[in-house]
Amino acid sequence: MTKKLQFLITISLIIYSGSIHAIDRYFILYGLKLGQKMDVASQLFGKPFKSEKFNDGFRYEAFKIKDHILVVEANNTRPDLIWGIQIQGKSNPENLGINGLNLSDNESKIIEIFGKPDEIRDSFDEITKEKISGTKYYSYDKQSNFSIETTNNLVSSIKITFNGYNQSKEEFDILNFIEILKNKNLYLVANNLATDLTLKKETNFVIQNSLIDTLISKNEFSEFLFNPETGLITITSKDVIESFPIRDKNNNLIAYYFKVSLNKKNVHVFFLRSFEGWILKEVNFNN
C-alpha cells in the first residue's frame, strides 16, 4: 500500500491548497467539472463553432449541441483548466443541469432549489448595455458561484464559475458517501467523484465520458456503485474493516483510506480532500 499512499499524497498536495470556505458551491454543469482540462470539452463534443482569446488572457470555446449551446471558459492564471461552464438555449439532456434545475424550467423552481439569490435584476446586452426585454438575471455569485438567466419566465441560461472551495469536515466516513448513493441524486454523486477516478481490477477502468454519462450508462464503474446486490451502495458499518486518515508533513488531513468487504472480497477505497469536498479517487480490488 505504501506506493499508493505516496501517490495519493502527492496528488492531494496539488489539489488541496488554500483555505476552505463555508459556503456550498457547485462544480458540475453539463457533466463537466470545474478544474478539468479545457480540451476535455472538444474531446467529448467535437470542434467548437466559436472560440476566442481576449487581451487579458481569458478564453472560451463554444459548442452548438441541438437546441442549446455549451460554453467553457479558462482564466488567465491557468488557461489549460476549465474555470467557467455555461449552457444556454431551450433544453439540455436529463441530469446535465445544475442540482435538478434545467433549461426551460419555470423560474419559480430557481428559488425552490437554491433559496433567495443575491440579486434579481433585468438582463442587459454586454456590448450595447441595453436592457433585454423579457429577461431576468438571478445572481448567486456572492453566496455561491453561479448565475441563472430567464427569458419569458423560463430558464434560458445557467453558468458556474470557480470562486473558492467547499467546506469539508476533518472527519470523513465512507457511509456518508453511501447515503449519497442511496439518494440517487446523480448530480451530487458526480460532485463527489474525481474526474480521473480509477477502478483497478484485473484491468483498469478509467472514466472516458462525462461523470454524469458514466453514472447513467451501464459500465463496470456504475455497476460497482449501484448494483443492488453487489455494489458499494449495499455496504454497512459492519463491512468497513479498516480506515485511517492520511496527512501531509504539516499534519494537514488530505485523504482517507478504507478497506471494505464487498461481495466477500476486500476492496481498498481512497477519498481525497479536494476543493469540492471529499471525492472518491481510487478503488482497488487487487490485494
Features:
elongated; six-stranded mixed sheet; Nuclear Transport Factor 2, Chain: A; alpha+beta; eight-stranded antiparallel sheet; 287 residues; Pathogenesis-related Protein p14a; DUF4309 domain-containing protein; 16 strands; 2 domains; disordered N terminus
What this model shows, in words?
It is built from seven helices and 16 strands. The strands form three sheets. Strands 3-4-5-6-10-9-8-7 form an eight-stranded antiparallel beta sheet, covered by helices on one side. A hairpin with a 2-residue loop joins strand 9 and strand 10. The chain is elongated and about 65 Å long. The chain starts with a helix and ends with a strand. It comes from Leptospira brenneri. This is DUF4309 domain-containing protein.
